[in-house]
Amino acid sequence: MTAGPTNAHQALVLKLLRDSGPNSRAGLGELVDLSRSKLAIEVDRLMETGLVVNDGLAASRGGRRSHNVRLAPELRFLGVDIGATSADVAVTNAQLEVLGHLSQPIDVGAGPVVVFEQVLDMAAKLRAAGLAEGFAGAGVGIPGPVRSSEGVPVAPPIMPGWDGFPVRQALSQDLACPVMVDNDANLMALGEQHAGVARSVKDFVCVKIGTGIGCGIVVGGQVYRGVTGSAGDIGHIQVDAEGHPCACGSRGCLEAHFSGAALARDARAAVESGYSGELADRLAVSGTLTAADVADAAAAGDTLAGELIRKGGDLLGQVIAGLVSFLNPGLVVVGGGVTGLGHGLLAAIRTQVYRRSPPLATGNLPIVLSELGSQAGVIGAARLITDRVFSPA
Amino acid sequence: MTAGPTNAHQALVLKLLRDSGPNSRAGLGELVDLSRSKLAIEVDRLMETGLVVNDGLAASRGGRRSHNVRLAPELRFLGVDIGATSADVAVTNAQLEVLGHLSQPIDVGAGPVVVFEQVLDMAAKLRAAGLAEGFAGAGVGIPGPVRSSEGVPVAPPIMPGWDGFPVRQALSQDLACPVMVDNDANLMALGEQHAGVARSVKDFVCVKIGTGIGCGIVVGGQVYRGVTGSAGDIGHIQVDAEGHPCACGSRGCLEAHFSGAALARDARAAVESGYSGELADRLAVSGTLTAADVADAAAAGDTLAGELIRKGGDLLGQVIAGLVSFLNPGLVVVGGGVTGLGHGLLAAIRTQVYRRSPPLATGNLPIVLSELGSQAGVIGAARLITDRVFSPA
Question: What is the ipTM of this complex?
């Protein structure tokens, strides 16, 4: 474990090198607004920590050519994105480029001890493949609300056994590095902001459709987590007073009507009540139906699958229309495991938002699919921990 | 017109004196984080502008006693809050204390020229009463979206004739002072933050129920206006797909079902279809029914009036529950002309929010009525323009 930056100038240099790559001392001095001599002192201190190294001679700007500097190429971060039914684990360098990425099925209901055993196994595999010797930090996303100051899940509806589990503390012991924990939708937003479709956008929302539905909110370039860390918890907004019961104990919640779990349930119910197309064939073959089956069937032209996606997209679109009216964001990103649903889903959402939200809010509003797919969460997780590691203690 | 501050330290001194009153140079030095000698330079410059004056000797802190400083007591600001059916105009000093306040009925549909003639008459009356010689600035709230950089209303649904009218430019000529324009709900939020129930709260929403319904959003202590200035435009969130047609051209919008205008319409319809209680008597006497009549009748125990308020409060509560799930604010303030509806309305809103939003978001969430009533908007308007006048050009 290396020592970190000791002041705001050093922190800014580290984040500039992370986000924009190697740079000359002269270039950094302009961006940090420090004189050449003062910047040299800060860069030299960062070199002593081992976080920053020289990187060849910079292009000539007249006068003596200086060295470029960059983040140490051997620095490694771990990005972990835990969903209800799968976990993604990736190793990145300090510029958050993904060097290796594993994904495997899990059952979040098995509880944190079992799930983190699997996650640590995946991290060990990535290490064994030569991608990392150790980690300078790890970021972890979980599909529920998090008290982010402590890195602890709080009463997550789809995560029995996780309430209050000290994720940060436990993992930082196992991995021997600093750990930060956040809600998975917040990390997806951070990932899209760092390397995806939201790179130049200061105010946007990122809707993540997985087993449940969550939303990351970015205001003024910063993730907004709310006063108790539950901001973006849109899965339990009521869309039908007489609707399906929900895991949260309420009724008619958005995610009880549209989410990976709801799609699988509705597809199965349709088949069991006599529907005989593509989805019935899939159920007969595999004995189960998932949201991915619905997506594939819709892509193959199956009417029922298309109808399920359109109906769900209408409900989600109504909720997003309300958020757009309320927040007037500059971009809406739709992602998560169910984005295999693709353009049919996007069309339904757009129809609702453009019809229902005020023209002033929708006039220049792009509504787009995630660019990064399953990498958004792990890149966002790595970004979260580098924000911490690259800040003064 | 005095010159303004020339740097961020001077701006901070002015805002501290506005928000916390007279202070010693030593006290200001600590708050601004400047040495005594550097602070003295900034305070002396502010004295040259006339914005700041000496105010007697400060309490002894050992050594030579220094003068307190304060904002010039003769500085005057104008706060204007235009609603659909009434206008409030107030004169404040530089600490935003209301020295005089007039309210009179207007018809916003008569257009900006007619309305601002009335507003300027009201300002002239307040001046004639000796409350001000001239104004160092004026803030103006209007009940619709505003492009705040230019101070221009944008396609406001309940304000025919106002779209694109150069409010800021026209009024700053008439009043011979700087003018800032904002949405009325944003100014209500600013007012409650400055002098009302939200004084110590960094993240809150302020729902304003007037002829229409709007919402001010404060995030990290700053009003959040969205990327095109329409944030908080919740009046057109759909609450009933088969509902009443709305002035915006859509159907089933919140404010078509619950707002001052909707309450008056529903009360009249009930009376015309044969209802014979308190509201019928009021209509017979005055020939018209307003939201205030519904409030008074409910307070007098009228069943229909109580039922109209409860039903409307349920719908508004459902929308607020969604906002609470999404934003996880630290406080919800309910205000505007219709808050005469009072505790019956509040009970309906609370029931919906506490039932529907996640426990983590509602556990410590106060939902309260505005403390300032009709003064919230004018104090917020004065605050808006002092934020500008007390900033470097």
Answer: 0.90
